[in-house]
Design a protein that fits this description.
This protein is an alpha+beta fold. The protein has one domain. The chain contains 1 helix and 4 strands. Strands 1-2-3-4 form a 4-stranded mixed β-sheet, covered by helices on one side. The longest helix has 11 residues.
């Protein structure tokens, strides 16, 4: 279940992100621009320029996960 560990932090990327990026691209942003370690298990949130799509990237025991949501008005 997502967000089931209370000691994990949530990091928001403040720059708009290209939603075509997948595991490698998002991991590069976390390492190079956010200066964080993706293997720590923290959650990383990315939003596109128009704020219509959101991705959550995190690591769990078996590997990396990406959750994507299309945001609707109202």
């Amino acid at each position: 279940m997502i967000f089931d560990e209370p000691n994990k932090r949530i990091w928001f990327c403040t720059k708009p992100t290209d939603m075509r990026k997948s595991f490698g691209g998002l991991q590069a942003i976390i390492l190079n621009e956010m200066d964080r370690e993706p293997l720590d298990g923290d959650y990383f949130v990315f939003v596109n320029r128009r704020k219509t799509h959101m991705k959550i990237f995190y690591f769990e025991r078996t590997g990396f996960c990406i959750w994507m949501k299309r945001l609707e008005a109202g």
